[in-house]
Design brief:
The protein is of the alpha+beta class. It contains seven helices and eleven strands.
């Protein structure tokens, strides 16, 4: 989705979750390989950051979004809203398996799309939990009170080097390998969606973002923007604007979800 206008919606039937989303090409790239979607009726938000030559990245991210949204919608219509966390995680992995094979096979069938793939971060916002899943270096944060917490851990060469103690945070900031992911959708025949369940409180804000935001805007500045007394659409616009002001070297996408009016 390459919209320059924020999307927003409130659906009181989904545990009073408010959503907003925005995607922007940035200042350097010629096209937008990110894709975003949220469906308040499903309590589902998805963000994908595509990669690949020609328009392969756009194709991969678009396929991932469309297929996962359709798959989860079909499953939820059958399972109902009271499905437990284990069932939700199984449904998400099944959807990822289907999307992964579809992207992989499309790349094999079309030489111009060969090697395309996409990162992925998604969240299912329920009445008593949030299930977050990710593949690659697209992230999910949670703002609670005045504190911003990173809920995902990048599947990247840089993160592996940090974990091994081979790099300091200062060295990592200058590493030429910042964008090398170790896990992506559509590259191999099997890929695991890393998933965790999280609690939420009234006024918690969950942020899904591509690395076009997290690489360009420090976490403390993201936190400052999210703490402003603005609606979600305005916050999404400010986040994207700040990334562009800082150079906009990549496509920038954000999806925001806020728990509101919970008893």
């Amino acid at each position: 989705m390459a919209s320059s206008q924020p999307l927003s919606n409130i659906d009181s039937d989904v545990a009073s979750w408010e959503f907003a989303a925005l995607s922007d090409t940035g200042r350097i790239r010629a096209n937008n390989e990110d894709a975003i979607a949220f469906d308040a009726s499903l309590g589902l938000a998805i963000l994908a950051d595509g990669m690949g030559g020609y328009n392969g990245g756009e194709v991969a991210s678009g396929m991932a979004i469309a297929l996962l949204q359709a798959s989860f919608g079909r499953w939820l219509a059958h399972a109902g809203r009271q499905a437990n966390g284990r069932s939700i995680r199984r449904a998400l992995q099944n959807g990822v398996d289907e999307a992964n094979m579809a992207i992989l096979e499309a790349g094999v069938a079309n030489m111009q799309l060969q090697g395309m793939g996409t990162t992925l971060v998604l969240a299912v916002f329920g009445d008593d939990r949030v299930v977050v899943g990710h593949i690659g270096d697209s992230r999910c944060y949670r703002l609670r009170g005045n504190a911003l917490e990173l809920l995902t851990r990048d599947h990247s060469l840089l993160q592996e080097q940090l974990d091994a103690g081979a790099l300091t945070q200062e060295q990592a900031a200058l590493s030429p390998h910042r964008n090398l992911v170790t896990r992506a959708l559509g590259i191999e025949r099997q890929v695991a969606l890393e998933m965790h369940e999280h609690d939420f409180q009234d006024d918690d804000v969950f942020l899904l973002c591509s690395d076009g935001l997290s690489e360009m805007v420090p976490a403390e500045h993201i936190c400052t923007i999210l703490l402003q007394n603005l609606d979600l659409s305005q916050k999404a616009t400010l986040l994207v604007s700040r990334a562009n002001d800082n150079g906009g070297r990549d496509n920038i996408s954000v999806v925001l979800a806020r728990a509101c009016g919970l008893s």
